[in-house]
Amino acid sequence: IRETYLAVDDDRICKLEEYKRQMQGGNVDRRCQIAYTFVVGAGGPDRPFDHHEDDTAPIALEMDDIEDADPNGDVTYLNVKENMEDGKSTTYMKFGAMMADDYGIDYIAKIDDDSVLAIQILLQFIDDDLPPTPYNRRIYGGTGWASWAHNHVYAAGQFYFMSSDLANYVSNQLTVKDKQGMMHHRHTEDADMGSFIFSHPRPIKFINLSPYKFWHHPMKTRDEFMEGWKNIVHLPMHGRLLPFFHLCPAWMSGKGV
Q1: Cα 227 to Cα 110, 220, 231, distances in angstroms
Q2: Which of the chain's ends, N or C, has fewer CB atoms near its CB within 10 Å?
Q3: Distance between CA atoms of 216 and 234, rounded to whole angstroms?
């Protein structure tokens, strides 16, 4: 990742610590638009999966539970037990909401480490389609998928984003008990996140990026990842609006509307 899309020569993308430094210098010094960080659950085996279960402890640590520090200066060590489906993402959204309050961040995004991102298209998408604060209310987006069990759409976990108010809602306003009651029988991080978001009492503005997908996924091996980076010029991809092949076989066989 650091050798590909994070290595582009564009000062509009920077490490989170550099973004914070620029914001502390005032907006006149800010060139960075996208602040990135790698996220690790580093609290060790005695910590909960979701930071909301123990709000008294710091949300982030200086190093992981075996005292490995970050040599690249671009890792956030969350003070939770490492996990994929049970609270790491909502804890990251809690951290993101805190950063948004302190440093004027409009949206929080999450991307899988096997997704290869077209940074230039993302920057253009931000400029063209994402309203800034204070107009960025209840906005959520990614490639559209759907939960039959919970009767809602959601953004697939390969890449999704939400406005900072939604990050605050899912991580601070919903309790752990609230979230546990909304999770799918088989905990599924992206589908569960959609359940949390669509529990909001006000309308959600969902941006479906399926017809405008600016990343390759999944790229599991190094060779696949580098091949995806080589083919980044072929993005964006224009896919189906929703996964009808999965949700409605009858429709796909020509028996639908």
Answers
A1: 22, 11, 6
A2: C
A3: 10
